[in-house]
Amino acid sequence: MKHLKSLNKKAQLINQAVSPEEVEDVVAMQTVVGCTATTDPGWELDPFGGLGSLCQPMESDLYGCADACWWPAQVPDTMHTYPDWGKDVAKANEDWRKLDGIFEDGE
Amino acid sequence: MKLKNVLKSAGVLGAVGLGSLASQAVADQEFLLTITRPNQLHVIDMSSNTIARTCDIPGPFGTGSIALSPDNTHAYVLSNGTKDVYGFDIRNCDITFKAEQSSPTEQVISMQSIAVSADGKELYTVQNPIKKLSDRFEVEQPRLAVFNIKDGMDAKVVRTFPVDRRITKIAVTDQNEVILGGADLKGINPKTGEVRMVSKLASWEKGPLWLPPDAFAMHSQGEQMHEYIMPYVTAKFDSEEWNFETAEWWWGISRVDLKTGKATRDEVLPFQFIIFNFVADPRNPDILYGSFNTLSKHDISKKETLIVHEMPHTYYDLNISGDGKTLYVGGTSSDISIHDSDTLEKIGSIQLTGDMSTSDLRVATIRN
């Protein structure tokens, strides 16, 4: 960074941030919910290392993971980023085909 | 509630005789409340297990968190991605309260945290604010926000007090202390902001052989017992080597009696399968029922699981009738499964118009 000169205010802020004494404390997640709870059933393995304690079927769990931003890597986050993802699908187990994947390039 | 409204809500005027009409006129009315996608509050008559009315909630779905007024005639719900609060008269679906918590420069999310004061005059949320600056977001200190319910459709915050991060489910005691479910269970005086420890969890002092608890505070359906239950999982190791294979795994609960504000915390059952939520039998506080991929019945005085009933799909939460005889299991999909609490056998179902997702399953008892 010492060979780069900051030209605008945002770049100056970045320069300040990389200075160790300027780095703000990392704050904890806002809520308990999230991927960190070790006994929550996930999307790959349950707490016992198997599949039997995952949510079943996964359509039952889709909105529960999306609406509360529970598993934002596995299911679109309808609270913040993709609020319309399930807009026309009231029942995921009936209309799961309409719940499409998210593609950042829009394809 | 007037007799005419009781009969209309039950939808059984033509099906009952005069004698039962007289008994209904004086009986308490139990209603099961839940929210489904796209965003509707359902008021279900628990005497007939039919939907009495469905109230449209403005805005997009907001995780389905519901708080009841002390007389149970009004329900307050989080909507619009949990940014806004709406209040409904559940007897007619009239919207009586609205509070928009966010502004153009500050986004405010309340993760499940909504409750009504013991006197019914104030509404509490825990606000998680983020300042929206032109070039960045800044995470602000979470706060307890107080609204006056009489302010109606344009309610603004009247007081705030700083609280911990990671608070989800909250409840109010009869002494009007707000129980804050987070890393630890704390209580806050909503007049002064004074905070006290109610029950330690993350900061408990059980020694080096115990795994720090992993708590779950998404739902609490203790209306029938007037209590707040937060389940947690922990493990007791046989040495400080922390061998997870040989550890004893336990379900525990932090339990707050909302009549007194007194709390207990104990390991109550061996951890054998996932349970998302517990509800106690109003006839015996040692009998708990749990839901997830199974519906289960437990006697915590003996630390025993009594019955396990396999469910056809996952259900996040459950509640129970006032007489303790009937269990309602819901959350996730669009059906509430009804079970006999003695045998856990399925005895009925209520089909809803959309998925419940993470919604509460609350019981509102309107006393005549």
Descriptive overview:
The complex is a heterodimer of chains A (107) and B (368). Chain A has 107 residues and is mainly alpha-helical. Chain A has helices at 9-18, 58-67, 92-95. Chain A is elongated. Chain B is mainly beta and 368 residues long. Chain B has two helices and 30 strands. In chain B, strands 8, 9, 10, 11, 12 and 13 form a six-stranded antiparallel β-sheet that branches. Chain B has a four-stranded antiparallel β-sheet with strand order 3-2-1-30, with helices on one face. A four-stranded antiparallel β-sheet of chain B has the order 4-5-6-7, with no helix packed on it. In chain B, strand 1 and strand 2 (40-45) form a beta hairpin. The model of chain B is unreliable at 1-25 (pLDDT under 50). Chains A and B meet through helix 1 and helix 2 of A and strand 18 of B. Chain A: This is Quinohemoprotein amine dehydrogenase gamma subunit. Chain A: One of its GO terms (molecular function) is oxidoreductase activity, acting on the CH-NH2 group of donors. Chain A: It comes from Marinobacterium lacunae.
Keywords:
heterodimer; A: 107 residues; mainly alpha; elongated; B: 368 residues; mainly beta; Methylamine Dehydrogenase, Chain H; six-stranded antiparallel beta sheet; four-stranded antiparallel beta sheet; 5% helix; disordered N terminus; EC 1.4.99.- (chain B); Host-pathogen_enzymatic-act (chain B)
